[in-house]
Fold these 4 entries.
Entry 1:
Amino acid sequence: MEKNKNNQKKISIFRRVISIILLIVLLPLVLFYLFFKKILKHARYKLWQKEEMTGKKLLLSSDITTIDIMEGYEFEAYLKAMFFYAGFDVTVTQKSRDYGADLLLRKNNETIIVQAKRYNKQVGMKSVQEILGAVNHYGATEAWVITNNYFSPQAETLAKENGVRLIDRDELVLMSKEICKKLSIDNESSSIIGAKSILHSNKLDGRSL
C-alpha cells in the first residue's frame, strides 16, 4: 500500500516536472507565433495599402488608348482596381488553372466570374464558351466577359441565350469614367477636409496661413 502511494507520488511529481518543461519550451514558441502573426498581418495591411494606391493611380492615369496597349495581366490589374473601387471584393485567379475566369467578384453573397480580353480584334464566342464552363466550378451567380474591343454577333447571340453579360469597349469607357469621377471627388473631399483641419489647428495655435 505504502509502495503504491510512493509510486503515485513519483508519477505526480514527474507529471508536474513535464508540465513545467513543456511550459518553458512551448511558451516562447507560442509568443513567437503570436508576434510573427501580428507582424505578418501588419505587412499584409501595408501591401494592401500600397496596392490600393497603385490601383488608384492606375485608374486615374489610364484612358481607353492606354488600355489598348496594355498586356493581358495589366488589363486584369486595371479591372481589379476598377471593381475594387466599385465596391467588390476582387480576387485574381491562378493563371495555371483558372478554368476560363480571370477575376472573381464578390458582393452581397453573389459571386461573379469575369474573363478579361484585351484584344486588337473582335472577341468571338469561344470566350463566352470558356466563361460558361467556369460557372459551375466557381459556384458563380453571374458570368461576365469584358473587352477593350467589341464582340462578334455569334458571341452576342450565345451570351444572350446563356445569360452572360458582355461588357464591350463603350461600356468599359463609361464604367471607367464613373469610377474615376468618384475617385476624383473623394480625393477632392479629402483635400478639403485636410485643408480645413490644418486651418483649424493653426487658428487654435494663434497662427494664420
Entry 2:
Amino acid sequence: MILLSVAIPCYNSEAYMRHAVETLLVGGEEVEILIVDDGSKDATYEIGKELEEQYPTIVRVIHQENGGHGSAVNTGLREATGIYFKVVDSDDWVKEEGLLQVLELLKSMVKDGVNLDMLICNYVYEKVGEKRKKVIHYRTTLPQNQLFTWDDVSHFKLGKYILMHSVIYRTKLLRDCGLKLPEHTFYVDNIYVYQPLPYVKTMYYMDLNLYRYFIGREDQSVNENNMMKRIDQQLFVTKTIIDLHDLYKIKNKKLRNYMMRYLGIMMTISSVFLMKIGDEESCRKKDEIWEYLKNKDKRIYKKISRTMLGAASKLHSRAGQEFVETGYTIARKIFKFN
C-alpha cells in the first residue's frame, strides 16, 4: 500500500534534486516519489532515470514539455497512486526522522478507518548565510496530536499561515475539489493551499519540523527582484484566488475569516511590490486589483481595506508607501520569507 505520493517538480534541477529524493527514500515502498521533469535543459531527466533504476519500486520519472511549476504539480497529482499527496520542491528536502513519524501516523489513520483530510507539520527556513534557522510552527493555533476541525482552530498569527511546505492533503480531496493549477505561472503554491480549504473537514497537527525550505538563490521566484519582474503573475494568482470561492457562502466562520485574511495578505503583497516598482503603470495596476476585488464582493473589499495594511496599501502618498515598505522590511527580517 502506498501511503504517500510525493511530487517533485524539477526544472534544470541537476545541482540539488538528488538530495530532495534521497531524504524521501527512508519511507521505503510506502512512499511513491514522482520526479516530474518539466522540460529541463540540463541533466535533470538523466539523474531522475538513474534514481528510478536504483529504486524502481519507489521512484518514477515523468518527462513533459515545459509548463511551469503548476503544470508539474498537476502531472504529479494526476499520476499519484498514494492515499496522501505532498509536493516537495527540488531544492528543498524533508527531515528523515520526521517523515517516518508522519508515515506512522498516516498508517494508523488508514488502519483505523479515520478520514483525515489534511496533515499539518512545521517547516524550517534554510536561508543562506543564516546560522539560526527560523521554524514556522502552529503550537498556539492548532491542537496537537489529535484529530480536529475548523471549530477547534485558534487565531493564525502573522507569518504562521498554512503554506504548501506545511501540508499533506488526502489525494482524493485534491481531485474532488477540482484542483488544477495554472501553467507557465509562478506563485501558484498559494492556489494549491487555498482552493481545497472549504473541502477540508478533518485535520491533524504534528509539532515536528518536517519540511526544509531552502531560500537564498538569486534565481528563486521569491527573490525580491524576481517578484517585481513577475508582478503580473502575482496579480494573476491574486485574481484567481479572489474568484475561487464566494467566502460568505462558507458557513464556518473561523474558516471564512482565515481565508479572508489569507486573501488580504495576497492583496497586500501585490500592492507592496507595485508600490516598490513605483511607476505610473504600477500605480494603475494597484488601483485595478483593488477595484477587481471590490467588483467581486464589496463586503470582502471593505473588510480587507479597513485593516491597517489594507488601508495603507491603497494609498498613493509617500507616507503610505513608506508605511507599507517599513512593514515589509520588518516582516522579512522576522519571517525570512525571501
Entry 3:
Amino acid sequence: MIGELYETALAGRARPEIEHADGTTSPLQVDHWLHVRPGDVSIVDRCKGPTLDVGSGPGRLTVALAERGIPALGIDVTPYAVSISRAAGALTLLRDVFGHVPGTGRWMTVLLADGNIGIGGDPIALLRRVRELLTPLGQALVEVQPPGTAQRSEQVRLRHGSQTSAWFPWAYVGADQIAEVAVEAGLSAAETWSAHGRWFSVLRPLKE
C-alpha cells in the first residue's frame, strides 16, 4: 500500500478506504499497525533467532521482538513508515522484499503479518522469495485469512474522497489454502493456529 494516502493515514491526517476493482470498499486498518494488537503475542512467541519482519510498517512487531532481545530487522517500501519504526527504536530499512535484503539465506524467521502474504498479488512468488531469505532450518510465520475465505488476487487502491492512489496488486489466502500454496513455493505448513480471531501458519523449507 504505497503512496501519499497511506502516509497521511499513518500520520492520522486521513482515513482512506481500500477500494476494490469491483467498486466495493473496505476499511484500511491503520490502527492495527500502529498499536499492539490482540494476537501479536502468539506470533512473537514463535519467533526464533534472527528475524526479518517483511512489510514492517510502523514497526510494532519489530519493536516487540527487540524488546525481547531477539535480533530483528524490519523492511518496508514506505519512507514515512520506516521513519516511524526507527523513531520507535526498531532497526528498519527502506527495502523491497524482492530487492537486495541483508542476510539473504541466513534468517531463522521471516514474518509476513497483517495480511502481508498479499504483497505483490502473487503469494507463490512471494513465498519463493521468503524461502530464499530463510536458512534451510528456518521458518516463515504467515498471517492468513480465516478458513473459507476465497483465495484471490486483485487490483486495489486507496481512496479518500476524490483522492486516490495508483492501483496495485494484492492477494488473499485462507488458513485452509496456505498449505497448498506453500508447497508450490517449496515450503510445508508445520502448524496453523488462531488467536483472537486472527489466523496464522508456520511454514518451513522442504528438504531438497
Entry 4:
Amino acid sequence: MSATPQQIRQWTEDLAADPASLSFLPLAQAYRDMERRDAALRLLVRGLERHPNHVEAHYLLGLLYRDTGQGTKAFDEWDIALALAPEHPGARREIGLIAAARGDWAAAVRHLERAQAQ
C-alpha cells in the first residue's frame, strides 16, 4: 500500500519539528516506492546517524543499495541487521539470495530456511 500525500506531508513535518523522529523510516520507504532513491538514501543515512541500532532502517538501506546495484553495501547493511536481530526474516532472505547467487548453497539454504521459519 502506497503512502498517501497526507502521510508524506505528516512525516515530513514530524522530521522538520524533530530531526530525531522515527518518521524518517516510513518517509524513506515512501520515497523508495516512488523511486526517489536519492531522497530515501539521505533520510536513512541521517536517521541511522541518530538511531544506529534501528534494524528496519538497516534492512531498508540494504534494499536501496540492492536497488542501485551496490550488492556489497546491501550485504553489509543486512549483516548489521542480523547482528542486531538475528532472526530478522527479510535480512535472512536477502542474504540467502545473495549466497545462492554466489553458488554457496549451504549458506543459502541455511539462511532461507531460517527466514521461512520466521
